[in-house]
C-alpha cells in the first residue's frame, strides 16, 4: 500500500483502542531474559511492559481526550508524550512475576489511550505544530507492543490480534520509511522483529510472515554501515539466520491446521466421552503452565524455541472460536484492519480462558524454582499447573542410571563414617536437565527431586529429555538408621532404597508424560532437535505431521482434502482411546482429572498415539529406549500393543500406504480401510 500523509485519515489508519475488547483481570507476567533485550532497546523505550487498563479506566481516558474542546493546544500533546515516556520508565523496574496488577501498568496503558485519541482528533493542528509520520508510527508501534505484552500476561489471544492490527498499520503505511536519522536502523529492525513474532503466533504465514522477513533482510543489507558503527550488524545477522532456521522448521505443512484447540479439527468439549458419574471427580482444570526449553544451537527466534512455540499454542484455544465451526479454517487468511471480518480473530466469549503461560529461556536453577514457587503459591483452587521441560541431560561422573541404587549399595561399604569432610556432591552422581550453558554446572541444572516439594499442588509434568527416566525413578537420599549404622557397616548389609516422584508427592499425585531416552532414526535424525524440534513434542502438538515425518513423508504431496481426511481418522482413533480410558475401572484418579480438561486430555491422547506408533514401528519395535512412559501407569486397554491401539495405528498407516513399516498382529479383525484413500502417499 502506498504511504499516505498523516493528515489524511484513511481506512488503513489504526483504530483507537477498540471498545469490543473486554479485558480480563491480569493474572501473570512472563520474565524477560537476556536474549530478548535486543528487541527492546529503542531510544526512549524501556524494557518494561504496560498493563491494559480496565474498560472503566479506558472510558475515563477516552472521555478526557474528548472533553478538551476548543481549549486544547499542541503543547498538551507534547507534554502527554513526555509523560508516556516516563510511565514506561516507571514500569521498567517493576517485578514481572505475580498475579497482582501494579498500578503503573494500568497508568501506562491509560496514558497511551489518551495519547492516541488526541493525535486522531487533532491531527491537522499537530501537523502544523511539527508532528511527523515517524512519531505517529512510533506511538502505534508502542501500543502494539503494549497489546502483545498484555497478551503475555493474560494469554488472551484477542490482545494478540489487536497487536497485529497496529503493527500491520505501521508497516502498511510506511510510517518509518522516510524517518531518516530519527528512527535508527536498530529500532526499525526491532519493530519488524516484534511484528514477525506476533504474525508467527497468529499463523499469518501466507503473506505477512514472508513480507516482514524480506523487510528485515533488506533493511539489514541497507543499514550495514550504520549497524557496523553501532556494533550491531553481527548480532542482527545472527537474528536473520535464526529466522531462516525457524521458518524452515515451522513449514507450511506444520501449519496445515492450527496448533491451538480448534473446533474445526478438535471435538467440542461438551461432546467428549466422560467418566461415569459414580467416579469421584474434583473438577481440576489447567490454569497455569511453565514452558522451558534449551538445547545447544536449537531452532529458536528471540527467546522462544521451536518446541516452546508449539507447546505454547497447543495450550490455547483457537481465537476464531465458533467461527471455524461455521466457516472452516483458512490457514492462508491474512485479514488486516481493512477486512470486514476482523472480529473473527477475537476469542469467542463461550471459550474457556487460556491457561497463563510463563516462558523461561536458559534460566538459572534458582530463578526457575523461584518462578515455580510463586506460581504454585498463587495457583487458584481446583487448578492444575503444567511444567514443560525440554532440554538435554547428562549423567554425573558417578553414572546415575537405572542401576544406580545397586551401584551405590555395592560401594557403600567404602563410606567412612568417621570422615566428616564429605566431598561427594549430588551433582556428581544424580542426573539433571541442563537449562543453560554447562560452565556453571549446578546453577543451570534442574534435578528431579527439586520438583517434589511442589507436588503439594496438582502438577502435570511433560519431560522431553534423554534423562526423562530420572523423573520416573528419582534417587532417594540415603535412609540410614543411625542406631544400627555400626551393625550395618560391620555386616556389609546396609541398603539404599530408591523412590520415584510417583508415590513421593507431598500432597497431590503428579501426572507425568516422559519422552524416550533415545530418538528414532527414521524420519527424525539424531540432529532433529537442532533442525525441526523434538519428535516427542511434535507428536504432542502436531501428531499427524510427526507421523508423516516418521514414515518418511515430508508432506509435500498431501493436499488440503487428503490432510483433512487424515485428521478425521486421527480424531476417530483418539476418541476410541478416550472411550477406553473413561470406561476403565483401573484408571488412576489423576488421569480422571486430566481427562476433564480438554487441553490436557488432548496431550494425553496424543501421548498414547505416540507410544503406540513407536511400539509398532519396525525400526523401534520392542526397543524400550525408543518408547515413552508415563506415571501413574495407564490401563492395559490402551497399552501400546493392545488390539485397540493396533487397529488405530493401522487405520492411519493404511491411509498413508505405510502398513508395511509397522509390525501388526497377524490374527485379528481390523477396521475397514478405504482402499481408494490408502494411496495418498507412497
From TrEMBL:
It comes from the Eukaryota. GO terms for molecular function: transcription corepressor activity. InterPro entries: SCAI (IPR022709). Residues 1-73 are annotated as: Disordered. GO terms for biological process: DNA-templated transcription. Residues 34-46 have a biased composition (Basic and acidic residues). Pfam families: SCAI. This is Protein SCAI.
Amino acid at each position: 500500500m502506498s504511504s499516505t500523509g498523516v493528515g489524511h485519515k484513511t481506512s488503513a489508519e489504526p483504530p483507537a483502542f477498540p471498545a469490543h475488547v473486554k479485558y480480563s483481570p491480569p493474572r501473570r507476567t512472563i520474565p524477560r531474559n537476556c536474549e530478548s533485550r535486543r528487541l527492546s532497546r529503542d531510544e526512549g523505550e524501556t524494557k518494561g511492559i504496560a498493563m491494559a487498563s480496565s474498560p472503566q479506566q479506558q472510558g475515563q481516558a477516552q472521555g478526557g481526550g474528548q472533553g478538551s474542546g476548543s481549549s486544547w493546544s499542541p503543547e498538551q500533546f507534547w507534554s502527554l508524550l513526555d509523560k508516556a515516556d516516563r510511565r514506561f520508565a516507571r514500569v521498567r523496574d517493576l517485578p514481572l512475576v505475580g498475579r497482582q496488577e501494579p498500578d503503573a501498568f494500568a497508568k501506562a496503558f491509560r496514558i497511551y489511550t489518551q495519547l492516541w485519541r488526541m493525535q486522531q482528533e487533532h491531527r491537522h493542528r499537530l501537523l502544523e505544530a511539527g508532528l511527523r509520520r515517524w512519531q505517529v508510527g512510533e506511538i502505534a508501534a508502542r501500543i502494539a507492543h503494549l497489546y502483545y505484552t498484555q497478551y503475555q500476561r493474560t494469554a488472551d489471544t484477542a490482545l494478540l490480534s489487536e497487536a497485529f492490527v497496529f503493527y500491520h498499520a505501521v508497516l502498511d503505511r510506511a510510517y518509518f520509511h522516510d524517518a531518516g536519522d530519527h528512527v535508527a536502523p536498530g529500532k526499525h529492525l526491532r519493530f519488524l522483529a516484534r511484528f514477525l513474532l506476533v504474525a508467527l503466533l497468529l499463523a499469518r504465514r501466507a503473506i505477512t510472515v514472508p513480507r516482514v522477513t524480506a523487510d528485515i533482510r533488506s533493511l539489514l543489507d541497507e543499514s550495514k554501515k550504520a549497524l557496523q558503527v553501532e556494533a550491531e550488524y553481527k548480532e542482527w545477522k545472527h537474528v536473520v539466520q535464526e529466522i531462516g532456521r525457524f521458518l524452515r522448521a515451522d513449514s507450511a505443512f506444520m501449519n496445515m491446521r492450527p496448533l491451538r484447540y480448534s473446533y474445526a479439527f478438535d471435538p467440542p468439549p461438551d461432546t467428549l466421552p466422560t467418566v461415569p458419574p459414580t467416579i469421584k471427580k474434583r473438577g481440576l482444570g489447567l490454569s497455569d503452565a511453565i514452558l522451558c526449553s534449551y538445547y545447544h544451537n536449537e531452532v529458536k527466534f528471540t527467546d522462544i524455541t521451536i518446541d516452546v512455540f508449539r507447546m505454547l499454542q497447543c495450550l490455547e484455544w483457537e481465537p476464531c472460536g465458533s467461527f471455524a465451526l461455521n466457516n472452516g479454517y483458512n490457514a492462508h487468511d491474512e485479514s488486516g484492519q481493512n477486512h470486514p471480518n476482523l472480529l473473527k480473530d477475537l476469542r469467542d466469549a463461550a471459550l474457556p480462558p487460556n491457561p497463563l503461560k510463563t516462558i523461561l529461556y536458559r534460566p538459572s536453577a534458582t530463578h526457575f524454582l523461584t518462578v515455580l514457587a510463586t506460581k504454585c503459591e498463587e495457583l487458584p483452587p481446583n487448578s492444575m499447573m503444567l511444567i514443560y521441560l525440554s532440554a538435554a541431560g547428562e549423567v554425573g561422573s558417578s553414572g546415575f542410571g537405572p542401576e544406580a541404587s545397586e551401584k551405590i549399595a555395592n560401594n557403600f561399604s567404602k563410606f567412612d563414617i568417621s570422615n566428616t569432610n564429605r566431598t561427594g556432591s549430588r551433582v556428581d552422581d544424580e542426573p539433571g536437565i541442563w537449562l543453560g550453558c554447562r560452565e556453571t554446572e549446578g546453577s543451570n541444572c534442574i534435578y528431579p527431586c527439586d520438583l517434589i516439594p511442589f507436588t503439594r499442588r496438582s502438577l502435570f509434568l511433560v519431560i522431553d529429555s534423554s534423562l526423562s527416566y530420572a523423573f520416573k525413578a528419582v534417587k532417594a537420599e540415603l535412609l540410614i538408621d543411625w542406631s544400627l549404622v555400626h551393625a550395618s557397616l560391620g555386616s556389609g548389609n546396609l541398603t539404599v532404597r530408591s523412590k520415584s516422584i510417583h508415590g513421593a508427592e507431598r500432597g497431590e499425585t503428579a501426572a507425568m508424560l516422559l519422552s524416550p531416552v533415545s530418538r528414532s532414526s527414521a524420519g527424525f535424525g539424531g540432529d532433529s532437535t537442532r533442525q525441526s524440534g523434538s519428535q516427542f513434542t511434535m507428536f504432542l502438538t502436531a501428531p499427524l505431521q510427526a507421523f508423516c515425518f516418521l514414515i518418511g513423508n515430508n508432506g509435500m504431496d498431501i493436499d488440503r482434502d487428503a490432510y483433512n481426511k487424515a485428521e478425521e481418522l486421527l480424531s476417530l482413533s483418539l476418541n476410541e482411546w478416550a472411550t477406553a480410558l473413561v470406561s476403565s475401572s483401573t484408571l488412576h484418579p489423576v488421569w480422571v482429572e486430566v481427562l476433564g480438561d480438554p487441553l490436557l486430555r488432548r496431550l494425553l491422547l496424543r501421548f498414547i498415539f505416540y507410544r503406540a506408533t513407536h511400539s509398532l514401528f519396525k525400526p523401534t519395535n520392542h526397543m524400550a529406549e525408543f518408547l515413552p512412559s508415563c506415571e501413574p501407569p495407564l490401563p492395559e486397554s490402551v497399552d501400546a500393543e493392545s488390539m485397540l491401539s493396533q487397529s488405530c495405528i493401522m487405520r492411519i498407516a493404511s491411509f498413508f500406504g505405510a502398513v508395511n513399516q509397522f509390525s501388526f498382529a497377524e490374527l485379528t479383525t481390523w477396521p475397514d480401510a478405504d482402499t481408494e484413500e490408502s494411496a495418498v502417499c507412497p
